[in-house]
Each structure stands twice: as structure tokens, then as C-alpha cells.
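ubiquitinyl hydrolase 1
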Amino acid sequence: MADGSTTTVAGLRNLGNTCYFNAVLQALASCARFMDHLRKVSPLAPDGEEPEADDRCLAFTSVLHHTLNELAPRPHAMIGGPVEPYELNEQLGKSIKGFRGGRQQDAEEWFQLIMELCEDEYKKTQPKRSLFDLIELPPAESTNPFYGLSGTLLECTRCHMRKPMWTDRFLDLKLSLCASMDGRHVFSHLRESWRHYTSKERIDGVECTNCTLRALMEVVKEQCDALAAGDPMAFVDVPSLWEGGETRNVLRADALEWRQALLDTLNARLATTNSVCDLDMDGTGWNKDESHWLAVNGIEDPRTCRRTYTEFARHVRLMRCPDVLSFHINRNVFLQDAMVKLDSYLRFEAALSAH
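Structure:
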């Protein structure tokens, strides 16, 4: 038996099928970064108890902080018995009826709900700001250590220009236990699952506007070279730059001037891309001067230019890594037309490399 001076932690009373509930609480209580966050947004009273007001904005957050504080390590003599999270369960039931009562639930969903409730309450405590305030200052961000930001990029395999797709704010990264849903190639280490999550996925048939523009420039340059080689005062047939266009018979000097001006215009547009494949080729993104030279060269609508479709690689990047990186491992696979949950052990290390 432990003596009164031994540092230990209190147990947690099971309220009936609440093992998922208790597991998440114990994990959060041992997370120093999250406890620091709670102390900032919902400080406890000096005696360690909750604030007296029951109608405060941080009702759930305060009860959560109080419950987790009771699970903090302390001398054995100061522990009167197991922690009974009845009030926390009651507060949760007020917000989400699905978690009311003693029914078995998913621990990851419970974790998500805890964080969302805390985040919603935190936002309510922030002062209301006018439109001018929002313009001058960005909205205050929560200090919750679990929130991170991931981004999805498409990269052209031909020119390697990138096309940003979207960014997502996340609480945990959802990794797979297998490379496919058929249960084959089960991962044995978290590194394998992480590499699978961040690996590039090949997508064929995506238009690369950068390659489209470069291909158009190559055609214009070839025509400029051909026009420069002949008599400038002669009339020549100049082929169209767009599909289905007609050949025009014009003075060679004029045609060369038009094509060279168009080439300079396209070069200037290409210089603004900054390694990002997001050129506007639908006709609305061209300024007046650019539109003029397109029209002079017979391109009334840039959408009629020959498009370049190629293979892209889609991959996920961590744009902002949270202080506490949490993973949710999907163990579900389909075996013989039935969903099965694998119980394979996934090894992991305290430090995870993205390489």
C-alpha cells in the first residue's frame, strides 16, 4: 500500500459503459499543453473549485477543467476516492443528446465533441467586433494545442507547378491501418501509416494552365521565327492560334509585330505565376492590354486555345503543425463483404519524422 506522501492519481468512476469517456479524460489530464490551455481560458478559483456562476459562457469548459484538475497527480493522502464525472456528463448531455446516458460511444467522436464545445464557448467569450475591427485586426485564435492546419496540393508531373486546392483545420489526423480497405498490407508502425497518408496520389486528365500557356507561347515563338525570316513587306498566310480558326493573309511586318507583342504579353503573364499553377485561362482574368493583343492575334476568347491535360500528383501537407499532434487510426476493413475492425498492434515512437 502507498503511504500518504506518495504521489499518485485518482481513479475514475465508470458511469455505465463510459470507458471511452474515462479514457479520453485521463489522456487529456496527462496532457500538460492542454491543461495550460484550460488555465488560460477558464482559470479555477483559488481553492481549486469551479466559479460559482452556473449561467456563464464557459459552463462546459469550466466543469471539464475542474474534472481534469481532480485527476492531476497529488499526494495519496489528498485523494479521497475515485473522481465521479457526473456533472461533466450532465453538461455534455445538455449540449448533445446523443451522448446522454450510459451508452457506449466512440472515443474519437467524444474527443472531437469536447474540443468543439470548448472552442464554441471560447468564441462566445470574445468581445463582439465591428466590421472595421475585423478589417484592421484578424480574429483572435484559440490557444487549443490540438488544432492544426493541413493543406491539399495538386502538382503537375510535367512542369511541377502546384495548384493549391484547400486547407483544413484539424484536431487529429485520420490515418489508416492498411494501405487498402481489403485488409491487405497491414501497417506495423505508425511511420508506415504516416507515409501512406502523405504519399502522392496520381490523378490523370487534369488541365495545367501553366503548360497550356507555355504550349501557346511555343507556337507563337515558332511563328515569330518564321515571320522574321522573310520579306517584311510581303503578304503571307498566318495560321490561327486557336482550334478551328481561319488562316489570315496579312502583311508580314504587321503579323510579326502582333505575334511579338502577344509573346511579350504571355511572358509577362507567366512571370507572375510564382510557381503556382493558377493561371486564369477562361477569359475573365486578362486585363485590357492583354485582351487587346489577344484579339489582334485572332484570339477573341482564350478558352478556344488548345488546352494541355496531364497527370497531377495530389498530396497532403501540414501547413501548421499543432503543439500536440493527435492521430486517429482507422481500423475498419471489408472482408467478405462485411466490415471488420482489426486489432493489430501499431508501434509508434515519441518523435515522428515526415520523411
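DSSP finds ten helices and twelve strands in the chain.
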